[in-house]
Amino acid sequence: MFKKAYKISLEIHEASLNYPKHEQVSGLADQMRRASKGICANIAEGYGKQSISKAEFKRFIVMAIGSADEMRVWLRYCHDLGYLDQRQWQQWRNTCQDAIRFAQKLGLTPLLPICLQSSVLCPLNGRGAFCKPLKVD
């Protein structure tokens, strides 16, 4: 999973450099670069600390899950703003979901309710928050 997360982190970094200038510094592009790197960085740091402390290992895996969920939010924004096409959005979103499932399979976190395409429930409607593109008027 680390290799997969690292690969999309590089892809996201390169793609985000082409986003509008106003998104580059402290904007969507910057947030995406940070969150995507956080997934693999937290997996690596947790792995490195597992021989010292199981609690530290768990903490970093949970942070990797958080980074993956955060990344899914930024991907949703990019798709809805027209920065990502449907194919790329789905590919990166699925990789983030795979990272979450990988960490959950380690038995470190309780499994959350999962709809067909999302492990995150929308706090507003209780359904999968990232299943279908939103229509913005």
Write down the CATH class: Mainly Alpha
Biggest sheet statistics: none
**Based on DSSP secondary structure assignment, what is the total number of beta strands?**
0
Task: Report the principal-axis shape.
Answer: elongated
- Can you give the helix content as a percent range? 55-70%
Average pLDDT confidence is: 78
* Secondary-structure element pattern, one letter each: HHHH
Label the CATH architecture: Up-down Bundle
State the end-to-end CA separation. Answer: 38 Å
Strand content: under 5%
Give the low-confidence spans.
Answer: 110-137
CATH fold title? de novo design (two linked rop proteins)
Number of domains: 1
Secondary structure layout:
Blueprint: H1 2-16, H2 28-49, H3 54-80, H4 86-105
Helix pairs in contact: 1-2, 1-4, 2-3, 3-4
Describe the protein in words:
The protein is mainly α and 137 residues long. It has a single domain (2-105), classed as 23S rRNA-intervening sequence (de novo design (two linked rop proteins)). The protein is built from 4 helices and no strands. It has helices at 2-16, 28-49, 54-80, 86-105. Helix 1 runs antiparallel to helix 4 and helix 2 packs antiparallel against helix 3 (54-80). Mean pLDDT is 78; it is low at 110-137.
Concise synopsis of the structure shown:
By secondary structure, the chain is mostly helical. The chain is 61% helix and 0% strand.
